[in-house]
Structures are given as C-alpha cells and as structure tokens.
Amino acid sequence: MSDREYYLAFSNASGVGPKSFGKLVKAFGSAKNAWNAKESELLPVLKKSLTSKFVEFRKEFDFDSYLTRLSKQKISYVCLFEKDYPELLKKIPNPPIVLFTKGNKKIFHPEKLECLKMIAIVGTRRITAYGRAITEMFAEELASSGLVIVSGMAFGVDGVAHKAALSVGGRTIAVLGNGVDLPYPRENQKLYEEILDSNGAIVSEFPPGEPPSVGSFPSRNRIIAGLSLGVLVTEGASDSGSLITASFGLEFGRKVFAVPGPITSSLSAAPLRLIEKGAKLVVSPSDIIKELGIKNYELRKGKKETKFVGLSKDEKKIVEILENESLLFDEIVRRLKLNPSKTATLLSFMEIKGILKNSGGSYSIA
Question: What CA–CA distance (Å, rounded) separates 43 from 46?
C-alpha cells in the first residue's frame, strides 16, 4: 500500500489529530513507517495513553473493507501531500490530514485559475429579514461573479448563502463538523442533496459516520476560513460562532469583510466588532469583488442587468434606491414620494417580472 492509504487510516484514529500526525511523520519519515512502528518507538512521540489506544486501533483497522465502504458511498478523499489538496488550506497551521469529499471532487482544482477563488459567508443561525436579504444579495452576486461560496450548512446565514448561490447557478461547498455522509442538521437534508445535485461539494476532515460534537465545530470553522480567500460576516450576535471563523481568517492572513447592520439590532454586534478590529466594511458585493480582483465582474454584471431594459421611470427609481441595499416598504414609499397604493402596485409587478424579491417585507434586487 502507498502512503495515501496510511494517511487515510491515521485520519480515522481517534486522538491522532493533525498536530500529533505531523510529529509522527517527522519522527518516522512517512505515514507508512509511523503506522508500522513498534509501540516502544511510538512512546517518545505520543503520550502513553494515546499510544496504547492507537496500537489497539491499528490491529482492528481493515484497509480493504474501509476503501470498499468509501467507494460504495461515493466518497473521495485527498491527502495533505497530494497536489489536488486545496492550496490555501495546505498553508494553515495543522491542516487536515485528509479531506473527505462527497459530490464534485474536482471543485478544488478546476481548469481555470479564475475559478479557484472561494469566499466564506457565515453568520447567525437566528437570521432576521434584514440578514436574509443581505446574505442573499451578497451570495448571489459573488456566486455570479465566479466565486465559490463556502459555508457550514447550518441554519440561518449558512443555509441562506448556500441556497442563494445555487439560485443563480453558482457553486457552493458545505463544510461539515461530522462525516460527509451525515447531513447535519437533519432538517437541511434537502439542501445537502441540492448541493450535490448542482455540482457542489460536501467536505469534512472527519471520517464518514462520525457524528458532530461540541469540539468539531471550531475545527470545521478553521477549514471554512482556510479554504477561502476571504470571510464575510453578514449578521451575528456578540457571541456568534461566525466570529470564530472570522478570527481564523485573520490568523491565516485572509481578508475579512463585515456588513454593518441596524445599530438597534443585537445581531449587528458581530459585524460591528469585526469592523472595530480592522475588518473591511462592505455595503455591496462589488466592494468584495474589487478587493479580491475578480476581473470578469463587469461582463457578468452586464449580462445580469439585461432584465432592467424597458423599465418605466418609477421602476427605474426603485431599482436605483435598491441597487446597494434592501429596504422595507415604508422606507421605499418615503424615498419615492409616491402614495403607498401606487408603490405597492409597482413593487408587485416588479416582483412578478423577476426584478425584485421580497424577503419578509424587505425588498431587494432579484
């Protein structure tokens, strides 16, 4: 067997994480040598309790049956030393030994360099109408510009970001804190399947069959940040898990972006805290696109705006005021200086024509 299979075996060994594995490879020269080392040789590298646990594990591990299981479940894997391993992820401290993938296994190494760019979109699970509208707007435009949207498939911002990317034919990657064969949360089973059916991917460092745990989510968050050129936080409370992902982004030298929200909302706390710490304040997807240097943005944007041809004077005004932000009905009425009845009629027709979308009473460009 090659070192590839031994990497796979070590990724299943409980207690042997990336840091311990790195010590083993350094001490023995290869994963194969480390796997076959005597217990007395392992003791100086691993703690006594872990050494005993590992020795018992390797006695039971069946390479052939495990590889057969992966094949039947259509799960692929890439090892840290292989060229197909995501280049950005490889550069973080203690990267995953193995990255398991279900779905599009080529998503990390497409032919065109432009498509290698990924951005993480994360935030609160308790998403508001404002947060939903903002997340959809950013995810749709960023996905349309060629970026792969990376998130954690959780409730709230994560799920909205994945769905928005899929809605415009974009690609998305869901990073799980459990095995890639276990959709989590279970309520997102449909989203899990939609990602797989749309040439996206489900990835994890945890072996198939492993359930989520409290400690697995910070590990998941470091992968989300590690895969991405930047991390965007659209909405979150002061204790939001998205701050962990953003912190990893800063630690890894990634660009961190934050969307300011209403100062009266507790779910604006995370973006505001990040902005205080030096994250780039963004108010439109173009801010991020320019920062990341997406060269073909104007071409894509031009194609998308063909639906704005032939608008009436009042419809053009509505498009202008909603171009960079979503607004509630009363605010649109105030800015247009039209009576509510006429405004409601205009908005309804523009929704039907696919120009606008209404998310919980907040209108934005579709």
Answer: 5
